[in-house]
Amino acid sequence: MNTREDFVAEARRCLQCKNAPCVVACPAHNPIPRFMKAVREGGFAEAKTIWDETSVLPEICGRLCQNETLCVGHCTMNKLGAPLKIGELEAAVSDLFPLDIPSMSPPNGRRHLVIGLGPAGLSNAMEMAKMGYFVDAIDANPDLGGALINLIPGFRFDHRILERIRHKVEAMGIRIQYGVEVGKTVLLSELLPRYDSVFIACGSDLPQGAEIETHGVPLWYAHDLLDRQRYQPSDLKEMLGKAVAVVGLGNVAVDMARVLVRLGKRVTIVYRRSVNEAPAGRHEIQAARDEGIEIRELRLPRSCSIASGKRSLLCDRTAVVVALDGTKTIETVPGSGERIELDDLVYATGQRSSDTVFNGTDLVLRPDLSPYSTSNPNVFVGGDRVNRHKRIVDAMVSGIEAAKLCQGGSR
Question: Which of 88, 87, 60 is nearest to 159 (CA)?
């Protein structure tokens, strides 16, 4: 889809379903049928306004959302042929208004702080500014975007789009201070008295540890290797050997593998479940295969060893066992061990959130009150710290939902 005529033609395929399964499947519950109706009638500005009701980052979600398992995957048109290209239309309409900012309420005299400017922090900052708050934002990085700028490779996401986000943020009066790590550079306890409400969206900034015996084989973490603040592609080309095994099949694992292939490495992805159960987007998985990356599903890494000067990864074959209640477990197949030759091993099996931001405080999370609450009624959390699926759309939704709670702070 390259022209407005293409957009209209695609939107005309929408059946305007009464129950709208696409809306139900969308974590943001974007009003997709209303949006499609406006587009098919040529009302692009109206369509953008409709989308703004539930989303503040369409230029990002439209490109990176795993919509094949969400809105697109639930589109009724799947039963009749090809589903609507919902994400593509979302991004395309957003691109028609690159410098557009949402309508804003008059200043209410209240001050709000956002810590971390990934998708969750960005959405929260913009929502609070829309409601008339004076918003400050702090980020440890030298630029906004969080994982969008640090971890997602440029071949999957055009980082220049963040320039548009920066324009919107600045036009909305949001002040940003970069290079400040709360918990180190400044303590949260020093910031709290200055604000009526605080939203913490530092995300998952640490890799999950790997429980595997490596016996001298270098072990790396994809979260570290992809971080553009730490390494450049030229660094990775020199650091890693010719054959690399990547463990995991989320988007970070696939991104890592595709980066390494572009550096001339021979890459094998090892995943303990089936490809159909992988958290990575289907398009990304297919792209990896098209680029020559081998995916060995149903393999569980056990240990690394060196024999006759050759390094290898020992894996057991696995099987997914489904219980009567539908619960799935992974079991190894006895005597099924196989070896994969490699020079380096990279783990990409998930990230976790650091608690550095809470240094010097007695704050604790209060999920019994809401997914975003803490023991301080004016402090809320969001992003990957609380999102189980760790998808960009969930991060955006957490920022928007927490903004509603921030309005009800005790001050």
Answer: 60
pLDDT tens per residue across span 195-204: 999 999 987 7
Q: What percent of the chain has pLDDT over 90?
A: 82
pTM for the model stands at 0.93
Q: Residue 253 belongs to what H/E stretch?
A: helix 251-262
Residue with tokens 């829309």: 130
Residues 6+ away with beta carbon under 8 Å from 150:
141, 226, 227, 228, 229
Domains 111-205+353-406 and 208-351 share a fold: yes
Domain 111-205+353-406 superfamily per CATH: FAD/NAD(P)-binding domain (3.50.50.60)
- Which CATH class for the 4-95 domain? mainly alpha
Listing from the earlier edge strand, what are the strands of the sheet with 266-270? 219-221, 344-347, 243-247, 266-270, 294-296
144 contacts 116 by C-beta, under 8 angstroms: no
